[in-house]
Amino acid sequence: MAKKHIRLGFADFDPGFDYRKMYLYKWLCTQFDVEVTQNHPDFLICCSFGVGYMAYPGSVKILISCENTSADFNFYDYAVTSDSIVFGDRHFRMPYWAISRHCFDDKTAGRHYDVDMQSAPARKFCNFVYSNSSHLCAIPARDDIFHALSKYKHVDSGGGHLNNMGGKRVADKLDFIHDYKFTIACENSIKPGYSTEKLTEPLVARSVPIYFGDPLVAQEFNPKAFVNVADFKSLDDMVAYVKYLDENDEAYRAMLAEPMFPGGEDVIEKYRKGFEEFLIGIFSREPSEARRTVDYGWTRNHCAFLKYKCAPFRERLMKVIDVHRKRLGL
Fold first, then answer.
1. Which residue of 143, 194, 206, 208 has the fewest CB atoms within a 10 Å radius of its CB?
2. Which residues, 6+ apart, have CB-to-CB distance to 294 below 8 Å?
């Protein structure tokens, strides 16, 4: 039986984006006859880095949120975000760490790190690998955690921000953090349900995360597998607990041995199946049937106003992105 033909486009991804590497695109090709085109595509996969989607008024728009942004369903027909909302068939909740794995090139996919439990406590103390500072939207608490731990013992900072390793940046983050007992794993921002690779990377690399971020993180990840800064009344109390783990090998080994998810649940597979079912529900329909946005009523005025406002916003956004890319050396 011939596969259904779909005309697919992409909008508002990072300048280095290559759709051919996307898990999402590769999976769609197993289910449909996919034609990629930017000339009036029937379906448009959108990212968070712009407002280019507005140039495709006739396309069915599916937002894949790459940041802690929520979808404006006046513009997007469907969305995949970290928000815990129910909106008919228009939204699928998936935290960013899972979005990264199931939509893009996940740096942890297929990588496995063994650790010798006997010698694991003898590794270097702690690392901090970040390029984004509070000047580029990161929460100040990230730096506070770094400085608080540094008062106890030296923390190696191998990113572009607060670098104390001679300016040299880490070439392979997972290989780097595998050599450390602890990794500072702090989100750019705090939002319920928003957890990213900041937590999963050290867990995969077998370095205990010192995590600060999603207040609901313990609902999904095993709270015995990491140090949650939010569990302590002060940074001094958190540092005291890290010091205890650092000085007590058996306590450290016990935390390191804990599974990523409670009860060994295959959360990754759960998200994969749900995400694929969500996509099938969209792409199996004809575009006219799949449309969920409306063109008339007050929505038209709302959208026209935002489009007018978005012209200067787009210019400012691209300047911020350019600054960030220069800091990363891209």
1. 143
2. none
